Amino acid sequence: MAARNKARKRAFQILFEADQRGADVQSVLADWMRHARTDSRQPPVNEYTLELVEGYADHIERIDELISTYSVGWTLDRMPVVDRNILRLGAYELIWVDATPDAVAIDEAVQLAKEFSTDDSPAFVNGLLGRLKELKPSLRRDAQ
After folding, report:
1. The predicted structure's pLDDT at residue 140
2. pTM of the predicted model as reported, rounded to 2 decimal places
3. Is the pLDDT of residue 144 over 60?
4. Spatial separation of the C-alpha atoms in residues 60 and 25, rounded to whole Å
5. Separation CA 41–CA 82 (nearest Å)
6. What's the whole-number mean pLDDT along residues 8-24?
7. Is 144 exposed, middle or buried (0-12, 13-18, 19+ CB in 10 A)?
8. 98 class by beta-carbon count within 10 Å (0-12 exposed, 13-18 middle, 19+ buried)
9. What does the alpha-carbon distance between residue 114 and residue 14 come to, in Å, rounded to a whole number?
């Protein structure tokens, strides 16, 4: 498995845990990093995971606003927790990480949905992130 793929999966797990616990995502990230330093069985949090989680935390309100605005028929709090956090991670990477091609950000999010969510989730994730990709130029302008 590629290093960035592992980093995304770990970032998703951190976002998911924070959501489930109702905790601050940066606190959960700090817990994961501390645990990796004290338990040799726990792999360290790599730089890209750190970048993804911290980047998401920097844009949390805007990302949730975008997901809420463009998800048809789903409010953010009614959305399955797995899907919500895959979309959060995918939206951050799609809109704010220039080094990741748009198609890769979307495909990686879809792959996470295939691995961790329901049969309907990959299409939902693909559709919503595809819509955000179409709107990306205006979304970036609005974010600045």
Report:
1. 72
2. 0.94
3. no
4. 10
5. 25
6. 97
7. exposed
8. exposed
9. 18
DSSP 46: P
Answer for the pair 82, 117: CB distance below 8 angstroms, yes or no: yes
pLDDT score at 16: 98
The conformation of residue 12, written as its DSSP 8-state character, comes to: H
The first and second tokens of residue 43, run together, are: 């792999």
Least confident of 7-16, 71-80, 117-126: 71-80
Find out whether 13 and 46 touch, Cβ atoms under 8 Å.
Answer: no
Residue whose C-alpha is closest to residue 89's, from 110, 74, 70: 110
Q: Is the dihedral of CA 102, 103, 105, 106 positive or negative?
A: positive
113-to-52, 81, 82, 108 alpha-carbon distances in Å: 17, 11, 8, 9
> How many angstroms separate the most distant Cα atoms in the chain?
45
Model pLDDT for residues 33-71, shown as the tens digit of each residue: 999 999 999 888 999 999 999 999 999 999 999 999 999
Cβ atoms of 69 and 128 within 8 Å: the answer is no
